[in-house]
Amino acid sequence: MASRCAVIGIGQTKHTDKRLDVNHTGMVREACNRALEDARLSWKEVDALVIGKAPDTIEGVICPELYMAEALGMVGKPLFRVHTAGSVGGTTAIVGAELVRAGVHDKVLVVGWQKQSESDITWALSPHLPFDPPLMAGAGGFFAPHFREYIRRSAAPDHVGIKVAVKDRRHALRNPYAHLHQPKVCFEEIRDTPMLWDPLRYGETCPSSDGACAMVLSSEKYAYHGGTRPAWVHATEMRSEPTIMPGRDEVNPRAGRDCAAALYKQAGITNPRRDFDCAEIYVAFSWFEPMLAETLGFAEPGEGWKLSDSGATSLDEGGDIPWNCSGGVLSSNPIGASGTLRMAEAALQVRGQAGAHQVDGARLALAHALGGASQFFAMWIVGSEKP
Amino acid sequence: MAETRKPVTTIKTPVAIHYNYSIGAGQSAFMRAIREGRILGVRCPDTGKVYVPPRLTSVETASPMTELVELPDRGVVYTYCIVNIKFYDQVLDIPYAYGYIVLDGADSAIMHLIQECPVEEMRPGMRVKAVWKDPKEWTESLENIRYFKPTGEPDLPIEQIMNEIRKKSYA
Fold first, then answer.
1. Selection from A170, A174, A179, A171 nearest residue A210 by Cα
2. Interface contacts A/B by beta carbons within 8 Å
3. Do A246 and B108 touch (CB under 8 A)?
4. Which of A7-16, A182-191, B14-23 is predicted least confidently?
5. How far A22 CA sits from the closest chain B CA (Å)?
6. Could you tell me where the beta strands, DSSP code E, fall in chain A?
7. Which CATH number is correct for A5-118+208-222, 3.40.47.10, 3.10.420.10, 1.20.120.910, 3.60.15.10?
8. Could you identify which of A8, A144, A150, A206 might form a hypothetical disulfide with A284, taking C-beta atoms 3.0 to 4.6 angstroms apart as the criterion?
9. Where are the domains of chain B?
10. Which residues of B touch A132 (CB under 8 A)?
11. Tell me: domain B73-166, CATH 1.10.10, correct?
12. DSSP letter string, A196-251
């Protein structure tokens, strides 16, 4: 029988550049233990497991799903692995939520993770194919032309990207789990970092992280099992679009706009900037913030950079619509977990459990994950009240 | 027995894989042509968009695409990136620039190097043409083109060009 879905347990690891003390399963188990503790559930009580991790070449670990069930005490239970590139952690949460909402399971554990330290992601994303020139230089190099086109189109000033990076790194100082903690981070520090993929500086890119994030999603029946306020899933949506399509708008992809429109319709959102109290958005490189502000309807086309420049998305500046209070992907990027973290951080906000990065009285939050060549979009809306 | 020595944390395990990549019928025509120094595209019967390299079916409508179109080796820069990062196995010297180049008559862009142009003079809308390797070195690869360089012709209105392409999109 169909049910509402609630987030009743959340756990994450301290994201860092190298977790040498644990292997994949050890790291994943750490996040899952925390989520189960939060939900006051034992391993035995979980009905199904949904796992997500970015493509295996990124860290040279093939088919981790083969040993995840046993590592997590889930032998014999349903296990699903989700695959949607960088958005995978978000899609993983959505698959879990749909299993609950469809009435298939009552208690689903979802977990996303990545151990980037085990391989070389820039190499993995930059293959020299025998029939193409060897142009690619990691994800930053792939997205930089899109940012350049955004800047050309909107006439955004150069300092906006730097400002977004400073803002998210400052937010990270409030989050003990964030990877990058740069206590003195300032405009000059980011500005003076090397220009790696012009127009993108080193300081405007996400780190490579090891980390995991898990959530327990439950039906209404178990919503208060943990003894704390659950976050209610109000809407979920996923969209995709082709990598190469003549006339594809990489700056403002149609699939991203369609995904947001369908999501907002489900939850009755008409003015995202006003209706949401905060948002966790997949900003892996600084310029994604103004671009996505337009795709997600927080600003008119060409005006996204003004939103970022005004301080509206900053906790420190008292903005009306804080984005990435956790420090976001710009401060922690265990890729497969990054989408799950967006979903989980939004849930923490509406549960009032975000600690030093809590938005006062947050009741409704948007989470968004993006993957591939800006071609996979996974989003959800969570609220403190039942939908 | 208590273990008091330092733990073994990581071991290095290099991976090397040789692939047999199945090229597919759409790319096959492209590879055969590029071997001869020609660039082929294919036209979508529903939108009229020309894809380069060709593929068998339209991304937007899933219709078979059979009308091959020969394209010139010159076009216009849509957008670009200047790469300044050194990484393992990189074969190009940094900094280098690569761009999305829309060949004349094509609707999709190809990605390629842009050289013989100072970085500060690079711009969207710039006209460029291919600089080919010696024909003796040609293989089944877009690398037969060493890079693109400016033609010196007046810039084209790139925004208008991209908007015209987007207008052809299937609803």
1. A179
2. 117
3. yes
4. B14-23
5. 8
6. 5-12, 48-52, 79-82, 107-115, 195-198, 200-201, 210-219, 231-240, 278-280, 364-371, 376-383
7. 3.40.47.10
8. A206
9. 22-71, 73-166
10. 111, 141-143
11. no
12. EEETEEGGGBPPP-EEEEEEEEEEGGGTTTTSSPPEEEEEEEEEE--SS-TT--SS
Domain ranges of chain A: 5-118+208-222
Whether residue A122 and residue B85 make contact (CB cut-off 8 A), yes or no, is yes
Query: Do the Cβ atoms of B143 and A133 come within 8 Å?
Result: yes
Q: What angle do CA A302, A308, A309 make, to 5 degrees?
A: 95
A140 interaction partners in chain B (CB closer than 8 Å): 85
Q: A133 to chain B: which residues are within 8 Å by CB?
A: 98, 111-113, 142-143, 145, 147
Q: Which residues in chain B touch residue A196, judged by CB atoms under 8 angstroms apart?
A: 83-85
Pairwise CB contact (< 8 Å): B84 & A146? no
pLDDT tens per residue, range A235-268: 999 999 988 889 999 999 999 999 999 999 999 9
Is residue A338 predicted with pLDDT exceeding 90? yes
What is the value of ipTM here, to two decimals? 0.91
Chain B residue with minimal CA distance to A253? Answer: B166
Question: Is B112 within 8 Å of B4 (Cβ atoms)?
Answer: no
Give the pLDDT confidence of A25-56 residue by residue, as tens digits.
Answer: 999 999 999 999 999 999 999 999 999 998 87
Compute the distance between CA of residue A12 and CA of residue A177 in angstroms, rounded to an integer: 7
Selection from B112, B108, B148, B155 nearest residue B128 by Cα: B148
